[in-house]
Amino acid sequence: MVANPPIIALDYRDVASARALVEQLPVGACRLKVGKELFVRGGPALVESFVADGWEVFLDLKFHDIPNTVAGACRAAADLGVWMVNVHALGGLAMLEAARAAIDQRPHSPLLTAVTVLTSHDAETLAQTGIEGPPEAAVLRLARLAFEAGLDGVVCSAWEADAIRQTFGEDFRRVTPGVRPSGRGDDDQRRVVTPQAAMAGGSTDLVIGRPITQAADPMAALVAIQNEMQITEGPPTSP
Ligand SMILES: O=c1ccn([C@@H]2O[C@H](COP(=O)(O)O)[C@@H](O)[C@H]2O)c(=O)[nH]1
After folding, report:
1. What tens digit of pLDDT does each residue of 186-222 get?
2. SMART domains given for it (predicted)?
3. Cβ(10)–Cβ(38) below 8 Å
4. Cα–Cα distance, 117 to 123 (Å, whole number)
5. Which amino acid residue places its CA nearest to atom 3 of ligand 1?
6. Sequence ranges of the domains in the chain
């Protein structure tokens, strides 16, 4: 078993399909990520039911709004008992600080992370938004805002994980989606890394969705990924 088990992105079109997978999983073998699609379908009650069953739940709603609105959303998320919530670092320092303060005031304080640059971006698509240059530079700028606001870490691609670790220290979490076992297509992801390269490159928490949820045998896919996470390999060499 790896120290930080993978986080499975439950991006299903309906609650029943998500529950069908979760029922096959031993609690503790992985963590669960509830994102926008499943949350809109299942609502807070679904999240609370996973928490009640003992799951560590990453509520991946990526709040991005004015500080007051994000603070309120973070309070509500914390009260669901989840393990991690996130916001967009692009919301700026004041928004990040408001999120931090809101979480800290709750009886249960989940980890709070900030999305830097979505893993579906490469330099070309990022430039379309007005952010020029390599994604890593933008990721580090946004990670600095999250660090200064006292967040627990960032969501980034594994390509940037080592630079973030070196700049902000081991304890600042690097949560990395865009994980693809070798031979598996990239889907809409652009900054993609294999499970073992992500581990070697300094990711603290791997987020994996479709390679498991769309596999013919999701449990076998999860076991294969868990095994890959334990293979030692050098860090990623170039994007
Ligand atoms: O930069 C980001 C931030 C969040 N995500 C989320 O992670 C999963 C990835 O799913 P896959 O099927 O493994 O691609 C998905 O829920 C995204 O919303 C991300 O991919 N990139």
Report:
1. 999 999 999 999 999 999 999 999 999 999 999 999 9
2. OMPdecase (SM00934)
3. yes
4. 10
5. 118
6. 7-230
